[in-house]
Amino acid sequence: MKQYTLTEMEDKYIGKLGTLERDEYENELRMDILGRMIKTTRKQRNLTQEELGKIVGVNKAQISKIENHTNSATIAIILKILKALKAEIQIIIKLEDKPLQLI
Asked: For the chain, which domains are there?
């Protein structure tokens, strides 16, 4: 039985890197992971969604939607959440195969 890598399966069923379908998939995956990380960190900091929302200036429902990736949020809100959670932020932007790292 032939074994396939995850990348091979993604290429076959979602599309090759650089296609619209694959770009959308990769973005959704990143947002899902970010939401899970926010939720895990919030719980480690012993904060409820309501408490985190008050610190950030949004309601509990917005925090829930971000954590469960049912709603996209602005970068400003994400940055406020990460700051409230005392999370270190590193941003890497890749332009034409040249990484640009902002720390």
From this structure: 6-102 (1.10.260.40)
